[in-house]
Amino acid sequence: MADATAEARQQVAAARHNAETQLDAMGASARAAIDIPAKLKRHPVETAGVLGGTAFMLLGGPKRVAKTAERRFFPARANRPPTLLPKDVDRTIDRLPEEDRDQIRAHLERDFSNYLQKEHAKDPSNGRHSFWKTYDLVLGIAGAAATRGLIKRALAVPAEATEQHVERTAQPPAASSNQRSIDAQPKS
Length: 188
Hints:
Layout: H1 2-33, H2 36-42, H3 44-58, H4 61-73, H5 75-79, H6 87-94, H7 98-119, H8 127-154, H9 159-169, H10 177-184
Helix pairs in contact: 1-9, 2-3, 3-8
């Protein structure tokens, strides 16, 4: 029975050491993952690129770039003020004298807006709205995946940091003086 007790104590000590080693390794990994200055010293271009890409994705960069491209290459479409009136009514208003256009357009839009709120809960989709909805859906999914990957890469623990920590803590602890005194007691 004494041998079983001694063996159980050794197993407990080994398990404690293993738990301490894993906890230390996890702490070292966490510190290495968030140690951005050290990552910048080791791999400045790669780290800056990953952090910049993460910020770009988190701040909605792809959509901003697409909207800017639309304003640059299709300024008439992008700068057009939003109007509720059908195109035929808009064209007819454009034929009126210039001093009356704004007042008539405002009056018609107000009336048409009231009509739409009562009769139609939602505007019919057009090509531009469909494009941006599809863009938001596809790029939302792809952007989330890319952002997740960039964040994982930004917080990745360098292999050499983990290996060094494991080598330092791989030595099993020597038996403590309390355990030696317990083991030295006469067995009954």
